[in-house]
Amino acid sequence: MTGTIRVRTVLSTGAVIALSSLGVGLPASDADGGSELAETPVGAVVVAVAPEVFEDVATDVSVSESEARVEAVAVDPMTQQEFAEGSATLHAEEVAIELTGLVGDTFTAEILTVADDPAIITDDGALVVEASPGIEVLVIVKEDASVQIVASIESSDASERIPLDLGDGEAVDIVVDVDGLATVRDPQGAFLGFVAPPWALDAEGRSVPTHFEVDGTMLVQVVNHAAGDFTYPIVADPYLGKNLFQGFTYSVTLRKHSFSKSVFGQSIHRPTNYGIFLNQGWAEFQARNLGQSRVNVSVRQQYDCHAAGGYFDLAGVTWDLEYDRPARTLGNWFFGSAIHRCNWNTANRY
Question: DSSP assignment, residue 171?
Fold first, then answer.
C-alpha cells in the first residue's frame, strides 16, 4: 500500500480567464463548466502539442490579494497522519516564487519585469504579469508544489530573453547540464532547486530554438524567434521544482518503504541524469523516511536499481523497497534486472 498526496490549490474560472487573456487554451475537461478551448493559435498549440502543461494542477489554494500558497502533503495510508513535503508561494508584489521541499533551504525565483502593469493573483491562485512588452507570463502551481511558468511571446518585436533571478539577493551556483536541466546550489554546495530543460513552441507546434544562459544569479531562457519563420504567439515554459519524489511511507506490517516520483521528478527524469536521482533522490529518501532503522544494504541496492530503471518505470510507478530482501552479492543488482526488475529473491540470481 502506498501513500496518497493531498494538496491545497485549483485552476478554475479565474485562471481560465487569465489563460484566455494570454492566448492560452485549456482542454474542456480542465475548465469550469466544460469551457471551450480558447480560440487562439497558442491555445491550440498548448492543447495539441503540450497538454501536459495543464495537467496535475493543484486542487486547493490559500489566496490573498498579494500571494497564493500551496502545500503538498503526504497522507500515511495506515494512520492517516499528514506529513508536509513541500510548498509553493507566489508573491505578486515581488513577482517572485518561493519553493520549499524535503531537502535544502527555500528556493526563490524572481520574474524580472520592465512593464508598468503590476502582477496580479487570480482567485484561483495563479500569478499573471506582463514581463516585458510583448511577453506575458502566467504562473501555475502543480500538485507537488512545483511551479510552471508559461510565457506568451506575441510577436517578433518581443525580447528573446526571459530572465529569472534565482539568488534572492545572495550568491548562487547555477549549473546547466547537457540536457538543459539547471541545478541551483548555494555557495557552500547545498541544494536549492531545479529548473527543467527549456522548450518553446510556435502557434503551429513547431519547435523554436531555445536554451538557458547563466549570468551570475540570473538564469535566462533565450528563445531565438526573431530571425526565424515562426507563427505567433510562441509559448516558452520554464518549470521549477525541488522534490523528485512524493508520498513517502513506511510500513512495519508490509515491511517496506514506498514512494513515487513527483510530477516534477517524472518530467525531468532522463537516462542521462541517473546521478541526480542516485544522489539528490537518496537525500530526499533519507530526509523523509520514518523507518531509518530499517534502511540496510539491500534497501540501498533496491533504490539504486529503481533509479537506474526509473525513467522507463521498469519496476513500476511506485518504488517499493522491502528491507527483508537479501543484499546482492558484491552489490551486483544489475545481474538479471530484466527479470527481477529490482525485486530479486536471491543474493546472486533472480
Answer: -
Dig out the grid coordinates for 127 from the structure: 500569478
Q: Is residue 170 part of a domain?
A: yes
What is the distance between the alpha carbons of residues 65 and 349, in angstroms, rounded to a whole number? Answer: 60
CA 284 to each of CA 130, 242, 244, 256: distance values in angstroms, whole numbers, following the listed order: 36, 10, 8, 17
At 303, which helix (H) or strand (E)? helix 297-309
Do residues 236 and 151 make contact, with C-beta atoms less than 8 angstroms apart?
yes
Longest dimension (CA), the chain: 66
pLDDT tens digits for 188-239? Answer: 999 999 999 999 999 888 999 999 999 999 999 999 999 899 999 899 989 9
Q: Taking the complete model, does pTM exceed 0.70, yes or no? A: yes
Q: Note whether 122 and 195 are same-domain residues.
A: yes
Which of residues 222, 241, 260 is at a domain's end?
241
* Dist CA 1 CA 244 (whole Å): 20
C-alpha to C-alpha distance for 150 and 199, rounded to whole angstroms: 11
